[in-house]
Amino acid sequence: MADDFHKPALFDSGALDAFKGGEDPAQINRVAHETAGALLSRVRDDPQPEIVERLLAFTDDHGIDTVAELWSRASAHSLPGSLWRIYLLRVLIRQDPEQTSYFYERGSTVLRGIDPVVAGAESPTGPKEITDLADRILRGLFTGDFAVALDRAAAFCRIMAQGCAAIADEAEIGAPETASTLTTRALRFESIGADLTQSATLWRHDTLD
C-alpha cells in the first residue's frame, strides 16, 4: 500500500541520469580504444597492487568526468564502453551506498535465478557490503577473469532493476512521479546489464576490442 511506503525512492545520481547508450561502431573514438587497450594490457600483464588500487580510486580522486571524456562515447559492446560502464556503476554505488544496498536487497528478494550468487555481494547486503562488491568487480577487470567481472556487474544491474521496479510498483498510487523515475532507472539498469552480458560473451570469443 502507498501509505506504508517510507523508504527513499530516488537515487541522487546525476551519473546514472546522464547515462547514454553506445553509439554506432563507426563513430567510436580511436583514442578511447587505444587508451582502454593500453591500460588493460599494461595492468593485467603486471598487476602491481599499488597500481590496481590507484585505478580503483581514480574516480574518487578525479571524478567521473575524465573517464567519461575518454570512454563514454564508445560502443556499448567494446572494451572502452565496458570499462566506462563499470566505472559508472562504481560511482553510483559509492555515491549512496545505503540506498543502493536497499534497492539491491529488495531486488534480491524478488528476482528468481542465480544473479545474486553471480553478483557475489555478501548477505545481508548493507552499505559496506555493496561498496566492497563495487571494488571487487572493478578489481576483477584488472586482476581476474575479465568476462566474469562483466558478468558480475551485469547480474548486479539486473538485481538493481528488479529492486527499482518493485519499489516503483509500491509508489505508483501515492507517489506517481517517484514511480515513473524508478521505472526509468530500472530500464537503464536493464540496458547496462544487457550491454555488459554481451561484452562478456565477446571477450570470451576474443572479439571485444
UniProtKB/TrEMBL annotation:
One of its GO terms (cellular component) is DNA-directed RNA polymerase complex. Keywords: DNA-directed RNA polymerase, Transcription. It comes from the Bacteria. This is DNA-directed RNA polymerase subunit beta. It comes from Herbiconiux oxytropis.
